[in-house]
Amino acid sequence: MSAIRDPRPLTGEPLALDLLNTRWHREGAIHDLLTDTGGLAVWLTANGLDSFAADDATLRHTLRARDALKAAVDGPPREGAALVDAVLGHGRIRPTLTPEGPGERPEFQDPAWGPAWLAARDYLRLLATAPDRIRGCAHDTCVLHFFDTSRNGTRRWCSMATCGNRAKASRHYARTREG
Question: What is the DSSP letter of 161?
Answer without folding.
Answer: I
